[in-house]
Write a structure and sequence with these properties.
about 300 residues; alpha/beta; Rossmann fold; 7-stranded parallel β-sheet; 11 helices; about 40% helix; globular
């Protein structure tokens, strides 16, 4: 095994995080393969078998944070079902990476805001892999608006269905197939704690996810199923250039202590840790903040 070069790794993260231009993507939630500055979703080190024989479902698993998590899980020995909306090319690349890591991948395309699809995705996962040990609720969307008066009912309902209702739907479908020591991990956001002037409805969903995580952790503790969340700060994913104007994109992440955007790979280990029962057995209802030094009260 080649020795991991820390300096080279950090230099690459800093380079990519600081070279982001004002690029924009024409469609939401965006296609990663169309990005000029490609996110860093994998690192040159091997897994340690921490998730051997586990089965994971990752929503929004085609790109961004979901892609990084799916690949990290595969490196640790888990079989992974990636759930995504419509970005088939991105999903195929992620599946290829999972298989290259020596694991198995299942591609499931559909709208997680639809309860029937969530039930179908879980059913297909169980049919393929026999069980579910890890559920990562990561899919999300955002629609910047300068005023609350600009948020129409359709946008409000859509944002809540994708970001929050999907978590209820996925847990309701997956829970009957999860045993003791399983793990549910939700993707929240720094906006749940700081708010965001342009993302009022998105921030509201992330605050609700925080309450959902803490409440579900209490409800499932007796079943020995842990529920936690990761709250990312500014992470460079297709969602950013597909939703923000060019001036916002080129300054993305520069307000952090590290003066750069974070990369999806920098979150993956937190999701591995929270999924790994031996490492996080006494952790439930908690939040891991990964935001480049944005101090929050949680």
């Amino acid at each position: 095994m080649a020795k991991f070069d820390e300096a080279q790794y950090f230099d690459e993260l800093e380079r990519v995080g600081k070279e982001i231009s004002g690029e924009q993507l024409p469609t939401r939630p965006g296609v990663e393969e169309e990005m000029q500055t490609e996110p860093v979703y994998d690192a040159d080190f091997e897994g340690a078998g921490r998730l051997s024989d586990k089965v994971a479902v990752v929503t929004g698993g085609d790109s961004g944070i979901g892609r990084a998590v799916a690949i990290a899980y595969a490196k640790e020995g888990a079989k992974v079902a990636i759930v995504f909306l419509k970005e088939c090319e991105d999903a195929e690349i992620t599946a290829e990476e999972i298989r290259a890591a020596g694991s198995e991948a299942l591609i499931l395309t559909g709208d997680v805001g639809d309860k029937a699809f969530c039930e179908e995705a879980v059913e297909k996962t169980v049919d393929a892999f026999g069980k579910i040990d890890i559920l990562v609720n990561n899919a999300g969307e955002q629609h910047p608006q300068e005023s609350i008066l600009d948020i129409d009912e359709a946008q409000l309902v859509r944002t809540f269905r994708t970001n929050l209702f999907s978590m209820f739907f996925m847990v309701q479908a997956a829970l009957p197939h999860m045993q003791a020591y399983a793990s549910i991990i939700n993707t929240a956001s720094v906006t749940a704690y700081e708010g965001n002037i342009l993302l009022l409805d998105y921030s509201a969903t992330k605050g609700a996810i925080t309450a959902f995580t803490r409440s579900l952790a209490q409800q499932l503790a007796e079943q020995k199923i842990r529920v936690n969340q990761v709250a990312p700060g500014p992470i460079w994913t297709p969602l950013i250039p597909s939703t923000f104007e060019a001036d916002h994109v080129k300054n993305f992440g520069k307000n952090t202590l590290m003066e750069r955007a974070g990369q999806p790979v920098e979150l993956a280990e937190a999701y591995v840790f929270l999924a790994w029962a031996k490492g996080s057995s006494f952790i439930t209802g908690q939040t891991i903040h990964i935001n480049g030094g944005q101090f929050v009260c949680s």
